[in-house]
Each structure stands twice: as C-alpha cells, then as structure tokens.
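>> received
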Amino acid sequence: MEIESRQRSSSPVRAEAPVCARAPGAPAGARRLAVRTAIGLATLGMARYVPFLAYFMSLIGSLLTVSVSIIFPALCHLRIFQARALQ
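>> returned
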C-alpha cells in the first residue's frame, strides 16, 4: 500500500521525505512536532535576545541578493567563455 502511494505522488523527493525523517521508535507526527517546536523556539529566542536582529537579517539578505543577481552571473559568464578569453 505504501509503495502505491509513493508511485502516485508527483514528486519522488516529497514521497520519500516522510519515510527518511522518521526516527526509530518515535511516531512520525511527534518527531515532526518536536522539530517544528525547536525551530520556532530558537527563532523566538534569537528575536528576543539578539539586539537589532532585523537589521542584521536585512544586511544578510541584501548581501546575498547582490551576490546572486550581480556577481554570480558575471562569474558564470567568465567560466563559460574562459577558453575564448585565453586565446
């Protein structure tokens, strides 16, 4: 029955993820709830105790955006046309 439900799924990764994430002896729902709760509490703790976290996250986001939109395409272009530039 489980194999049939995996075959009907549109994404093989989505079909395998719940099977791979199960801890031995723990119900799947309890482990998922524990992970989500831990991530939420960690985020809450950081937001509560790190001053100016919003400014820091904005800085990280803007730096990553610049690198993806400006630097990365230029590096890809140089890598693709490297042989032509050396001739």
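>> The longest helix spans residues 53-80.
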